[in-house]
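Annotated sample (chain length 491).
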Amino acid sequence: MNKAEASRAILKGTALFGGTQAFTMLLNLVKGKCVAILLGAYGMGVSSLLSSAIAPLHQFFSFGMSVAAVSHISNAPDDVTMRRRIIAFRRGMTVTAIITTVLLLLLSPLLANATFGSVSGGVTWFLLASPSAGFLILAATETAVMQSQRALRAVALTTAAPAVLGIIVSLPLFSLWGIHGIAPSLTVVAFLYWAYTRYKSRSVEAALPDAGRQTWRETYAVCRKIMSFGILSMSAALLGALVVYLTNTVINHIGGTREVGFYQTAVTITTQSTTILTFALSTDFFPQLSRSSSDRAAIFSLVNRYAQIMQLLAAPLAALFIVAAPLIVRVLLTPEFDTVVPLLQIMVLTLFMRAFFYPLDYICMAKADKTYYFCIEIVYNNLKNLLLPISAYFIWGIEGLALGFAAGAALDMAVSYLAVRHRYGIVYGSAMLFHTLLFSLLLLALLLSVLYVGTLLLTLPLLAVILSLSLWLLRSKLRRRRGKRNYSANA
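Output written by the structure step:
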């Protein structure tokens, strides 16, 4: 596969998963509207409380293994070993799912009292919803198996399944039983989601050879190796949740609950927009990188190709968000949230920045480098996420939160690049670095024009330059070169 074909494959995968994420977001918006009509504010509160109480528990008890398993299974030396690792991983996660479900059933009275207090039906709701945690663990297991084999279409379909099932199953139950249909709908949706992922995973796995019987000792050895890195991933997620909680608490004490809502709304829109663009990294790029984790030249080529394509997609998307932020807020929210507009315009700059450092961050996960992951992803990342926005908030108020958020992403670009260069000897090509500088200056100029100049005479030409330049460079990456000459690594 030449450079142009590889770039087209990356773009195709990004379009597939980006489209799936956009479709999922649209379905969730539709579901949210319908739930608000059928259940009202109280019903939505019950649904949120049940989901938010169960989700951290099933994430904790899965020990981050579904993420770590992708790398471990992907870099298997042959198909037989891959099949044996899949069997061991599935066994281990099945045991984990059963234990998690049983624990939640036993803890249902305590969880109901802590969540709902003396609300009638609280215990019953938790008893009915508890099995959903186990099914979600099993579904994540099958998704990880498909990711490790780069079954892109199957993964894309299963990603959209919860949103589709949520509308097909949940809405009829809500209309029949009202708030009493919330808990059973969580379990039924989770069960059907697992059944569908299991079916798709089996069809993908059928191409692998039979691996024979496997002892529980072998299962334990494989799961232990996966868990050793998975626990680090889980710790990072838990600390990240704690940082979000502490940040919101500080904002709430200083500026009030409304400012918490404004900030988190901007974060949510930015994060969802980023996910549309970067979801392909975890589903397609990560398994490829894991297979090449011992080949420095292959890592260099793969990381550079992905980063360049992601950057050329992120730049115009960020530019459009900066200009269209007022319209986006009005469509998705209400006039009360106009305060969010400048926050969102500043924060969407991180969409472009993340295209630079996200591919670099996956290298340590592909190599299962625990030291790097602990230092960068756990210690540095959480300290930065806590200190920068809060410090900027004390100085500049609510807009300081957005400035701190964007400054953190800019710092991530430097830290990730220097750390990867020092530890693995991986660097970006000169063209990639030049494009990063060029688009950074253009996006910054566009942001300043929108925030402080406010005239279309400057904004529209800048937007046109960013869009046309991105399109021209992207087309040059996808164009097949004739003759013997190929692109250089820096092209």
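Annotation: The chain is about 85% helix and 0% strand.
Annotation: The two ends are 16 Å apart (CA to CA).
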